[in-house]
Amino acid sequence: MRLKNAYQNNLKNVSLNLPENQLIVVTGLSGSGKSSLAMGTIANEGYRYFLESLPAYHQQNSVAIPTAEVDNITELPPVVKVEQSKRFQSIKATFGTLAELATIFRVLFARYAGEEKMSKSLFSFNHPKGACEQCRGIGEEEYIDLNKLIGDENKTLREGAIVTTLPNGYIVYSQVTVEELNKVCQAHGFSVDMPWKELSDEQKNVILYGSERIQVFYGKHSIESRLRWQGLKAKPREEGYYKGVMPIMENILRLDRNKSILRFVSSRTCPKCHGARIKADHLQFLWQGLNFQEWMQLPLNDLYDHLQQLKLSEGEQVLVDKIKTQLFDLIRLGMEHYTLNTPSTEISSGDGQRIKLIKQVNSSLQGILYVFDEPSIGLSAAYQQHLLYILRRLIRNGNTVMVVEHDLEFIRSADWVVELGPGAGIEGGEILFNGKLQDFLTAEALITPTRKAFEQEKSVEAEKPTSANADDFQPKKQGLSVIRKKTKVMIEKITSFCKKNDFQLYQVDDQPIGKTPRSNPATYTGLADKIRDLLAKTKDAKQAKLSKSAFSFNNKTGRCPHCEGAGVITLSMSMLGTVNQTCPHCLGKRFQPEVLQVNWNHKNIADIYELSIDEAIEFFSEEKKLAVILSLMQQLGLGYLKLGQASNTLSGGEAQRIKLTKHFAKSAKKTLLLLEEPSIGLHQQNVEQLLAALHQLKTQTAGIICIENHELFQHAADVWLDNAEVVPYEEPPLPKAQRQDVISITGARTHSLKDLNVEFPKQQLSVVTGISGSGKSSLVIDTLHGYGLQEMTKQFSSYEQSRVGVNFQLEVEHIEGLTPSICISRKEKNFTERSDIAKQTDIDKSLRFAFSRKAQYEGKDWTASHFSNQHELGKCAICDGLGEEQLPDPQKVVIDAQQSIAEGVFLHNKALAYYGNPDGQYMAILKEVGKEYGFDLQTPFQKLTPERKEIIFFGIPDQQWEAIWEFKTKTRTGTQALNMVWEGLFSYLREEYLKTRKNKNIKALQALLSPQVCSHCEGSGLQPERLAIQIGGKSIHELKTMNFKVFAEFLAGSSKFINIDRDLGKRLEEHLKTTLQRAQQLHIDYLQLNRKSKTLSGGEQQRVALIKQLNSPLQGVTYLLDEPSAGLSQDNIPDLIKLLQELVKKGNTVIVIEHHKDIILAADQLYEIGPKAGKLGGALMFQGSPQDYLKTSTCHPFLKKAAAPVQLQEGKKHIHFQQIKKHSLQKEHLAIPVGGITAITGKSGVGKTTLIKEVLMPSIEQGKPVNCLSIDFPSDYSGVDYFEPKKLRAHHKTLLVDYLDLLNPITKLFAKETEKPARYFSYKNKSSQCPNCKGKGVVETSLDVVANAVEVCELCQGTRYQQEVLGFKVEDKNIAEVLACSISELGDWLQNFNLKSSVENFLQQLIQIGLGHLAIDQAVTSLSSGEKQRLLLLNWLQKPEENQLYLLDEPSTGLHYADIDLLFNILRQLSKTNEVIVIDHNPYLLEKIGVGMVLD
Questions:
Q1: How far apart are alpha carbons 1446 and 837 in whole angstroms?
Q2: Cα torsion at 1373, 1378, 1380, 1381 (round to 10°)?
Q3: Mapping DSSP to helix (H, G, I), strand (E, B) and coil, where does residue 655 land?
Q4: What residues pair up with 73 in beta bridges, in sequence order?
């Protein structure tokens, strides 16, 4: 791993090399730049690159990750990162929710605790379906505590017995004043002047719960006082019954839970759910003998032991293993005392950190860089040993671990040390050491803070301080007390101590002091307020009439309005990261010019914020209030920080010490400070500094208590309590080291795989081949990639896992050595009208973000959506974002011009007939128009003049016409007077299309329309005003009209742009550099970025899809490619091989499913799966070198044949074209051979598909030249059919027996033989199908957090039927046994019956085209690409035609040479009475065809 010039935060152009497969510790003083290097640069980049390999949908679900400020990172593995734990303040967060173990238990209960499956939400206390109604899922019922609401009972209501009474007499939460309340009291026979303690319970209830005896006025002020207000219109107060204090407060508590109401709240165990948090009714469900609450209450130790003893089903075992794996490590990291329902507020920061860590470390993948931020916080020696064991386990498995750490014992266990310094903040950010641990400990000339700490440690006595007794523990008043472990009992003792001594307990943690650049140390500690006072009192400020608020960048009065006081305009660019552009208006000063004119002691407000704490002490030496706070900050070791340093750049240790400063700046004699793990983020030197400060400051408080495990704290404490149990630790043996040179698969049984054991060598090119349907994709994609994606997504939340790849159904015993995988499959896609190359390659997304940020820079509140032709905010309203208007086509509207309107020229289309019906109201108006313009409805359309046709189509605007419409319906006739404008047929059709274009059922209307460039948006698909935003002088539409090559040249010149354009252009160039290079390497840089996806040829489409997936700069990735040669010409294959070998050279492993001869021979290792397809395949037939494979008997003869260029013969007949002009196809003359089977080949992108789909086909269909001047056919064709490999239209659960329509004859045969109705034997019939699996044969259980559990149905044993149905047999087979047959076996069984010859012929045809092996009960979607293709071609074979022109576009895609032999047989059958033109690149198929042309 190599970094070059990292300048994130305070890093000073750091460059370094780091080793692989080692434990790397990054250390240094707090604020020295450790986290900026490890987390902000290395971890963020590796994690972001992995996310970019996922589909865009999953990227948008991930948290935005800013691009690191670094010139270059190379050889970076995919990253799993665990940052410092943030405190979870949600009252509903528990140990179980944070560890996501409660989530798994919810699934267990939902799937296995009831007789039927339930919603897992029933067991969630965060969901309305599951949360107890009374406590709302908290487990404790909150209530308004009268003891907190009623103060001094000796006081009267007027005197303020209710503590919310204001000085003006208004009682907050009562909605009335004391005077109004007195009216209510008098109605009940008492007054507000009686002491509270003298009121009866009944009278108190009136005050607390209201009365309906009389109505009173609500509000704080009387009408008289309101009338005296100036500038306000007095509004009479509302009048109503007094509601009482308690109902109002309880309603606020229920709806809001704001801080004000919580002052009066106490809690008790919920009486309804008894603390279970979920609805009491749901506690009746038991899983393995315990209800949900009982499982949640078990300490982790007991929970683990209990789970060990259970006997479970397969699905249950998968989930329980997932729980136990985490529990094993959680217990050994000192968390055995927690339960899953332990509130998050009782979990220490260190444990919170390790909960996150344990979720990540149980992946069995290799080649990952794990980055952890101080995982050892608060751990005793034994627990730290297990942490190191976990990390060593990861390294032993072939991963690299990087840890930000200060603990000296932990550093001693490292292999490699990186120390940053020498100081903190601006004094840090340099590499002091980067090398092996031994060199770090022994280098004589090395003097760093960490080396000093090691030296000092040797001189310190090893004697440990004596611990206090836990039972007698009392914090020392005005002293420093240190407790090793935070426990509920200890917190209760401290709370009791505070109550007893009337102390206030104040907790200081390490959480950020703010999240935006406008929050900083000066604003948090109150320094900024005092600085603003000084500036506001100056003569300059008074003359300019600037108040104190003008010097706050959080106030609109004085701050720069463009950057809103941030000093920078932060342009978040999603996957591009963020661009922090210095505000061009205030130049980063944050304030308006008039504010910056005001100086105090020769410095303005911006200059003051640039001062460090040390500099500020000298600058404000005469200002005592400021000096006190600044001295405290310096005393706590923060002298290097700038006053205006953004809070979101501070480390945890810095944030905690700033909080201490704020506290010590005020008197705190009655406050007991509780610091939880204050050594977080602190180096040994910083800890010593902090301890010295705490001892100096402790006398200003009631005392300081630290929950801390750091040895220096133990030695420095006035009272030390070691309340942690001594845990003997016996390190488990490390698992056997995985091999790192191969990917080993053991026992793969996915689909039809036959217990395959395979080894793929790493960092080599492996090719998997075999006939279609043999199991190649089952092995490489379903098994290998499915496993890899499931493992890598463990770092995601359960929700994110459920969205990414956890539903791969794979069956394998073990996979070892796999690194994170990126899969490039050939799954067909149905592109929308708006899909183009820019969208497919994510260039569109990048441009939208860049242009939206440019718009924001210019003051427009536009987001990326405003530049999207798919979003309502951005797309053109006229063309709906398509860039093309769908306008009525005269040739489609008028098909038979010999007809008149009266004869029905407009009746051929349902949508047109609504307006063109000669008996309709529209034609009644047109009849009147015709009287004036000299035509009638009986005139044949072809005899109308162009002017009259213009009137019929486009109307006569702004002229009203009167007519009497003689209407006729099925039940009556009559007349109706009409008065309307004749707007024209085209106007009516276009208006209807604009209103209904989003409806699905408008095919009739669409048949009348043809696309034309939208005149409103000029083809951009965007609202015209969006095109005014430009980068480098170009709008987003102008950039998208460029091809890859021109666009790359445009970005290369971005250094000449000015201001923000230059920065945005540079970011775009950096981010899209690899994409544009790939386009050049794959020979598609001639394509325009706005080229519609559906117009691309097969070769172009394949390579466009390859670009995004091959872009990842990560190293150590396993690339899995499914037939990358598909659609590529023979000339392009060497470039593809070079690209694959380039990936290998970078340190990746490449496994390719492939049939192409050249790629097979270029492989380092070759694997053949076979011998046949389906159940007859799935075995490993060969494993070895391509040269050895050529010697085997199973090798296809074509592979053994010496390579030679294909020579195509000239045909005897030709189709001649003149002046073809469409896309890249520009030809003055072209002749393509026809007759029998002929071929068209040539480089990808020359226009082969364009020739067939957009010239030849429409010319035959429309009977005229389309996209060419003329076309001459050698014979008249009765029709044209076009074929391309495409997705079979079938539901994912549709079985082949149903798709082939074989279920009906089979069930009818059973019906005939058994006298039962045919439907009785259908697995789709509810009365016959198994009630458990609903006729599927398997039970699929959604487990959400792991792959769905698919188990053979226990009730019907996979037969799909009820037992009584299976009792009927025909020719020794029941219906289930028949459905288990292959097509060949079904044909043999049917020989026993007299069936229609059509069924027998159909089965014979299936066998002839090589589909006899297919099981008729397998899902259609499980078929291989070759099998699907042959099924589609079968449609042509079943409908014999003559003199038909069949056009096939790349039919060899995904086919083995043996499959091509079968394909050619089908083509020969078709060509007996028809002509077949094949577009293809496959040299074997071209050789077999023999006749054709090369298009260039």
A1: 29
A2: 110
A3: helix
A4: 3
Given a cut of 80, is residue 461 above it in pLDDT?
Answer: no
DSSP letters of 967-1010? Answer: EE-SS-EEEEEEEEE---HHHHHHHHHHHHTTSS--HHHHTTEE
**What percent of the chain is helix, strand and coil (3-state, nearest 5)?**
40, 20, 40
Amino acid at 1432: L
pLDDT per residue as tens digits for the range 640-662: 888 988 887 776 667 878 888 88
Residue 1105 near residue 1084, CB atoms below 8 Å: no
Token pair for 132: 């107890």
pLDDT of 705 strictly over 80: yes
Q: Which of 361, 360, 344, 291 is nearest to 96 (CA)?
A: 344
430-436: strand order across its sheet = 79-82, 369-373, 400-404, 23-28, 416-421, 430-436
Residue with tokens 């390659």: 841
| The pair of three-digit structure tokens given for residue 1144, joined into one six-digit string | 């290998």
C-alpha gyration radius of the chain: 39
Report the DSSP pairing between strands 1165-1170 and 1179-1184. antiparallel
Structure tokens at 953: 């189509």
Q: Which residue has the tokens 């009486």?
A: 271
| Complete DSSP assignment for 316-361 | HHHHHHHHHHHHHHHIIIIITT-BTT-BGGGS-HHHHHHHHHHHHT
Are the beta carbons of 685 and 452 closer than 8 angstroms?
Answer: yes
Strands 215-217 and 176-177: unpaired
**What residues form DSSP beta bridges with 1446?**
1281, 1476
Could you tell me the end-to-end alpha-carbon distance of the chain, in angstroms, rounded to an integer?
Answer: 45
Give the pairing of strands 719-721 and 701-707.
unpaired
- Residue 1264: C-alpha distances to residues 1256, 1257, 1267, 1269, 1296 (Å): 10, 11, 10, 10, 41
* pLDDT the model gives residue 1062: 92
Give the three-state DSSP class for 173. Answer: coil
Look at the chain and count its residues: 1496
- The string of pLDDT tens digits covering residues 1318-1374 is 999 999 999 999 998 899 888 775 544 444 556 678 789 889 999 999 999 999 999
Residue 768: phi and psi, rounded to 5, are -110, 125
- Measured CA to CA in angstroms, residue 423 lies from 428, 637, 802, 1336 at distances of 5, 11, 45, 68
Q: Residue 526 — φ and ψ, nearest 5°?
A: 90, 0
Of 478, 475, 513, 517, the closest CA to residue 493 belongs to 475
pLDDT in tens, 1420-1430: 877 877 777 77
Is residue 31 within 8 Å of 521, Cβ to Cβ? Answer: no
Find where tokens 């267990």 sit.
108
What is the spatial distance between Cα 782 and Cα 775, in angstroms, rounded to a whole number? Answer: 10
Question: In this predicted model, what pLDDT tens digit does every residue of 1096-1111 receive, in sequence order?
Answer: 765 677 678 778 667 6
| pLDDT score of 806 | 46
Question: Exposed, middle or buried: residue 381 (CB in 10 Å: 0-12, 13-18, 19+)?
Answer: exposed
Q: Which two tokens stand for residue 747?
A: 């026992």
884-888 and 1009-1013 beta bridge pairing:
antiparallel
Q: DSSP character for 1254?
A: I
Q: Token digits for 181?
A: 């309340």
3-state secondary structure 270-325: CCCCCCCCECHHHHHCCECCECHHHHHCCEHHHHHHHHHCCCCCHHHHHHHHHHHH
1201 to 837, 1157, 1161, 1167, 1204: CA distances (angstroms) = 39, 10, 12, 20, 9
Euclidean distance between CA atoms 1036 and 839, whole angstroms: 13
The C-alpha atoms of residue 536 and residue 525 are separated, in whole angstroms, by 19
Q: Mean pLDDT check: name the lowest of 131-135, 406-410, 994-998, 1078-1082.
A: 994-998
pTM of the model: 0.72
